[in-house]
Amino acid sequence: MKKKIPILFLVAMLLIASFFLGSYVREQRYNRDRVQRCCTLISFAINKAENENLADMGTMSALTSNVYAAYQFCDDSRATTQLHDLWNFMLLESNKSSDVKDIVLNELNAVLNSIKPADL
Questions:
Q1: Predicted local confidence at residue 1, as pLDDT
Q2: How far is CA 75 from CA 12, 49, 62, 103, in A?
Q3: In a domain, 21, yes or no
Q4: What's the sign of the alpha-carbon dihedral 34, 37, 39, 42?
Q5: How many other CB atoms are there within 10 angstroms of residue 80's CB atom?
Q6: Does a structural domain hold residue 4?
Q7: Least buried of 56, 70, 89, 105, by fewest C-beta within 10 Å?
Q8: For residue 93, is it within any domain?
Q9: 6 vs 1, 20, 37, 47, CA distance in Å?
């Protein structure tokens, strides 16, 4: 009987530890997936800005949508601020500026380089 108590205690501790380890692993995967989604959306926006005419309202609308979606998936506070500022620029100031393409590409590349992990 005395041998069963330590074994039961050990089994209970292993179950609890495995629960916390599983929760930790799931959270790490979730965070990695969010970063990957953010990087993918920024890459889509960069591709669109490089290859399409930004004077077209449909293209600009799609690009603005990609930037906002990336903002929603980004957890890095500095990158989130940059994406939000870029999004505001695209909504409010893009029709007033002649070098929209350069500004958008520079900002998107800066954000992507600051958040992209080495394994993506």
A1: 60
A2: 36, 23, 22, 23
A3: no
A4: negative
A5: 18
A6: no
A7: 56
A8: yes
A9: 10, 21, 46, 61
Tell me the C-alpha distance between 45 and 2, whole Å: 66
Domain encompassing residue 40: 32-115
Q: Is residue 20 domain-resident?
A: no
Give the total number of structural domains in the chain. 1
For residue 34, is pLDDT > 80? yes
Distance, in Å, from the CA atom of 88 to the CA atom of 80, rounded to the nearest integer, reads 12
The encoded tokens of residue 43 equal 């890459």
Residues 53-57, mean pLDDT to the nearest whole number: 84
Q: Could you identify the residue written with the tokens 């979606």? A: 69
Give the chain's largest Cα–Cα span.
Answer: 83
